[in-house]
Amino acid sequence: MLKTKITRILISLRMKKLLLSFYVVCNVQICCGQQNFKFGPVGALNAAWFRINWNTANAEITPVLGFQVGLMADYEISKSIALQPCITYSGAGGKVKQNNQTSVYSLNYFNIPILIAIKKSLNQAGNIFVNTGPYIGIGVGGNLDKNGNKKVVAWGNNATLHDARRGDLGWCLGIGFEKNDFQFSLLYQIGVSDIHPNNNDTYNNRLVGIRVGYLVNLQ
Fold first, then answer.
1. CB–CB of 155/163 below 8 Å?
2. What is the CATH number of the domain that holds 13?
3. DSSP SS3 for 166
4. Which residues 6+ apart lie within 8 Å of 160 measured at CB?
5. Is 154 helix (H, G, I), strand (E, B) or coil?
6. Do the beta carbons of residue 88 and residue 111 sit within 8 Å?
7. Of the candidates 103, 107, 132, 104, which has an alpha carbon nearest to the alpha carbon of residue 118?
């Protein structure tokens, strides 16, 4: 019971740090000049899977469907370059089949990507853009289904006691279109952290999705 309470407190502190970092980034952008600063909600439908390096037998890997919801900022550094910090509650995971055992990981993360976008004006039609940058994620929940036996994911580094490591780092790529207050994009996330507690195998998160945002100009 005490260990559970301590874990919850640590998760709460980590989330406060993530939210504070996002808040600071957004406020710095507002104070740095008179360029356009947009802010608003975003949502996405995504497919997630694992890239696995096995030291034992190979496995069949299938994507799982999920979603993202969060907040995003868009600060124009110039007419063609923008900074796009974001915080999302995001689904991840994958379906892994090996040796007649099927494991379905449905993982939930809070992710903070910090992206740089390069934009090209289409005049009255809007803008097209590409964006890229790093992200940091922290696991906050999820389920693991092994051959029909479903349980809550245990986060940690012990291969005997835990199902997945909590921390995740990676890189984001995207391409999209924006007009007025709406933004539409395709996104691809490449996890570089090994999230599996078993050191014999390496699990890296992968995700592709379609995102829609409604960003209002605050200046």
1. yes
2. 2.40.160.20
3. coil
4. none
5. coil
6. yes
7. 132
Domain range enclosing 162: 2-217
The structure's pTM equals 0.81
Q: pLDDT tens across 113-172, in order?
A: 999 999 999 988 999 999 999 999 999 999 999 998 999 999 999 988 899 999 999 999
Pairing status of strand 182-191 against strand 167-179: antiparallel
Where do we find the tokens 């979603």?
67
Task: Give the integer Cα–Cα distance in Å for 192 and 206.
Answer: 9
32: left (phi over 0), alpha (psi -120 to 50) or beta: alpha
**Per DSSP, which regions of 11-126 are E strands?**
37-53, 60-62, 64-76, 81-98, 101-121
For residue 96, which of 68, 120, 61 has the smallest C-alpha distance? 61
Burial state string for 21-44 with b = 16 or more CB within 10 A and e = fewer than 16: ebeebbeebeeeeeeebbbbebeb
Q: By the 8 A CB rule, do 214 and 181 touch?
A: yes
Domain count, the chain: 1
Q: Distance (Å, rounded) from C-alpha 21 to C-alpha 202? A: 29
Helices (H), 32-56: none
Which tokens is 57 given? 């037998």
